[in-house]
Amino acid sequence: MIKKTDFALLGVAVSIAISTPVSAQKKTVQPKQSAPVTAGKTIPVDPDVKIGKLPNGLTYYIRKNTEPKKRAELYLANRIGSLMENDDQQGLAHFTEHMAFNGTRDFPKNDIINYLQKAGVRFGADLNAYTGFDQTVYQLPIPTDSTEVFKTGFKILSNWAGRISMDGEEIDRERGVIIEEDRQRGKNVQERMSKQLLPLLLKDSRYANRIPIGKIDLLRTFTHDKIKNFYADWYRPDLQAVIAVGDFDVAEVEKLIITNFSDLKNPAKEKERIKYTLPDNKEPLVKIVTDPEQQYNVAFAIYKHPATVAKTTADLQKSLMYNMINSMIAARFQEILQKGNAPFLFAQSSYGPYQGGMVSGVNAFQTVVAAKSGKDLESAITAAVAETERVAKFGFVQSELDVVKRNIEAGNEKKLKEKDKTASTAFVQQYLSNFLTGSPIGSIDFSYAQTKKNLAATTLAQVNALAKTLITPTNQILVVQAPEKDKANLPAPAALLAAFNNAGKNITPYVDNAVNKPLLAKLPAAGKVTAEKKYEDIGVTEWTLSNGIKVLLKPTDFKNDQIAFSSFGRGGTSVADPNDYQSADFSEIIQQSGVADFNPSQLNKLLAGNTGRAGSYIDELYQGFSGSSSPKDIETALKMVYAYATSPRKDTEIYNKYISDYKVTLENKNASPSSVFADTVQAVLSSYNKRNMPTTLADLDKVSLDKAFAFYKGRFADLGEQTFVFVGNFNPATIKPLVETYIASLPVLGKKQNFVDIGSNPPKGIVSKTVYKGLEDKASVQLYIHGDYDYTTANNIQLEAVKSALENKILERLREKESGVYSPNVGLSVGKFPTAHYYFTISFSCATANVEKLIAAAMEEVKKIRTNGATADDVSKFKSEEHRQMELNLRDNSYWLGYLTTRLKYGDDLNQVLSNKQRIDAVTVASSKAAAQQYLNENNYIRLVLMPQK
Q1: Do 566 and 918 meet the contact criterion of CB atoms below 8 Å apart?
Q2: 3-class DSSP string for 835-875
Q3: Per-residue model confidence as pLDDT tens digits over 622-632
Q4: 452-497 confidence digits (pLDDT tens)
Q5: Residue 903 phi/psi, 5° resolution?
Q6: d(CA 459, CA 58)
Q7: Rounded Cα–Cα distance for residues 471 and 484 (Å)
Q8: What is the pLDDT of residue 125?
Q9: What element of type H or E holds 140?
């Protein structure tokens, strides 16, 4: 069954979209912000990290850390990127990163990927790399309980550092992959607008001519010597660092680094690594760009600031104050956005790295605002900028600062409590930033003490004085991105400047709207735990409460300062009147309106410094609650559960703003090819069932706040069949009286409840549909093989094995052999209710000319697996990856919360996790073949394609 997916209300980015780092799913490391304003002490280096340098100049960072156990994070960092390319090498820094996975001295062709997959390391999800303007980083998470695998990890890093083969045939084969990466990431409205904005945003700098993906014509035609020269010139030890953090012996790791990297040599004639930056602009830079596929009218006001790396305690205090300013401005905008007459769809202001850290050494104060239409843009700009002018003119008030201080203090305490549970990746990022930008490596203890000291020392006057410096008379950039259809209604550049310059007129000081009363007017009458059951083998206790609610508890030591919980009861929106369901589908607005006497912003102020949070939900089949807290604040989270159940809030202003904004979204969404395609996918997969069709303006007209409120109250009026799951660091004896007070007291009516099958099932047989929408040579393909399913744990693992094998084969065929795609996706979804069903999905983007060829190739791979099953090699990889992932899952609170909740929903044996290893080990070539023949058939096959408009 396919659930209804509402179109996102607003997809406005806080920085203008430009393709900078490429080839990975990670952002580049950002430079630390702000120059010191007063003298301060130098930040001491954490004594628990060993930093060294080999005679050839290679830097290394080593730290022992046991979270997660039996794992290590190995990184190779290079202080080079696209800025180092010659004119005839544009794109080859990124291309070099690709070639690292296509053959090295000790690992020919794809041997690195194959070796690591057999060791349980997943390509893409674990093993990855990225290239930016001034950095190229390779990441390799690896198990440490296999000495041979762990040692080989350092050999792999050293091969990347100086032993990439650069085989000519592999280079030529990879050209198509990178061109397809450019197509997948670009060939859309964001790329077209970026190309118009780059000359402005990166004016008079080298950055403008060194976008990491490079120039497509050059990528197609460069001679092999160009990339070989780039590698020889720039991949050199004096610009490289090895970072190793994990569950290992530090002395042994240092020996491995010395052994594997000492023979790397720097070029005889080293090229100078020039540091590039962005020049100032005295006059405002203004640009208005439009596009037929742009959905919203968005304006950016940007004030560039110089940035330097934090080195002292004074720098840390200034950075802390910037964070305070960002939080307080965000809270003010949240208040405005809750009002029915809010003058914009969205607005936000913040100080931080310019364009997300695109340019080293530059920060910016940026305001982004989205208007309802082109004709409303000028007034929206004026209103948004007026808020920043209000801050500059009148500053913040003490109550705002008190709120943000309490929140920062709570986060600081949590970080210290989780000191010994800090993930290795967190330390890696700290050391990576130190190598790339020179940012400090303070210990957690030092950071805690200094933050505590800075919080106590920071005054409102200091924060307000810093806030006044954010808006500057120079280095201003004003940008508008708008739909082509609104072009005639947009303000001219002069009017745009005037709107920004006049925004601060007639403003008045901010007035805090905090509500000073308790979350609950009075405590509920407590119930009791009436029965207890133990699941000793998995460490779970089940309570039955006096009101019938079940509570399952799994105490863990995976985190020191975390408790997470969720609940469910059958029903959801499926029980709504089939002829009057729209208000039920929009009952989410009640959850988003706050609770009792508190709107969302007032609730945030009330809970400042308290980590306890909870909320309610209603989805298609279930309703319930979810939340989290530190152990000390769990009572607050449970109070919120009780409040959302018994005191929901109906807010006309929030509702009117929500519906008004949603209408704007619906009016504009058909400009986007991906949105039109998503609507088609949703409609086809639900067989055009009216309950699961995309929301329309006609649907909105049928929504009533009173009906939505009544439906919400109805779903939470009888909670006797709710089941709660708690996971985390708690003592059941301590939490018991809180459960009795706030959960055993929830209302019950004693009725039997269930969900309803609304009949939203995918179509049987073979279905093919092509959507023609879009301006670029870019196609999107989604293929579904699906059917009715016998939902069992044994079947589930066999289908996962088939999916894993298909994933490998699709990647090998479509990317490596055909060079026709960048990152194809193979998915598997299985569900039990309301009817058991399974879906295999294959999706990719490609050139329009290659659609039929690549679909045929994909289905040929499907047929091979259906005929022969997974290969022995693929089965081995699957088992290794599953076993390694299970090791991590079993020490993760979120895994246990999801696992227990799903088993309870489906009525499964809670102990089945204990036999996961045996089920994984039971996968064979023969068993995968049997599963593939039963489920990977094409009797029910859906082919959906998005092509550019004719």
Answers
A1: no
A2: CCEEEEEEEEEECHHHHHHHHHHHHHHHHHHHHHCCCHHHH
A3: 999 999 999 99
A4: 999 999 999 999 999 999 999 999 999 999 999 999 999 999 998 8
A5: -60, -40
A6: 44
A7: 31
A8: 78
A9: strand 136-143
Torsion of CA 687, 688, 689, 690, to 10 degrees: 170
DSSP string, 664-699: HHHHHGGG-HHHHHHHHHHHHHTTT-GGGSPP-HHH
Q: How many CB atoms lie within 10 A of CB 794?
A: 14
Structural contact between residues 392 and 468, judged by C-beta atoms closer than 8 angstroms: yes
Tokens 């190598």 belong to residue: 435
Residues of the chain with pLDDT under 50: 1-15, 17-21, 23-37
What 8-state DSSP symbol labels residue 513? -
> Residue 356 carries which side chain, given as an amino acid letter?
G
* Element holding 225 (H helix, E strand): helix 224-234
Name the phi and psi angles at 473, rounded to 5.
Answer: -80, -15
Answer whether 897's CB lies under 8 Å from 524's CB.
no
- For strand 362-371 and strand 941-947, is the pairing parallel, antiparallel, or unpaired? unpaired
Strand intervals (E) in 763-810: 766-772, 779-788
Alpha-carbon distances of 663 from 92, 305, 643, 668, 698, rounded to whole Å: 45, 38, 30, 9, 10
Instruction: Write the pLDDT tens digit of every residue in 708-717.
Output: 999 999 999 9
Q: CA distances (Å), 29 to each of 84, 122, 817, 854, in order?
A: 18, 23, 33, 36
Burial 677-709 (b: 16+ CB within 10 A, else e): bbbbbbbbbbeebebbebbeeebeeebebebbb
Phi, psi of 557 (to 5 degrees): -120, 20
**Please, what's the b/e burial string for 552-590 (b: 16 or more CB within 10 A of its CB; e: otherwise)?**
bbbbbebbbbbbbbbbbbbbbbbbbeeeebbbbbbbbbb
What's phi and psi for 460, nearest 5 deg?
A: -60, -40
Is the link from the previous residue into 284 a cis peptide, with omega within 30 of 0?
A: no
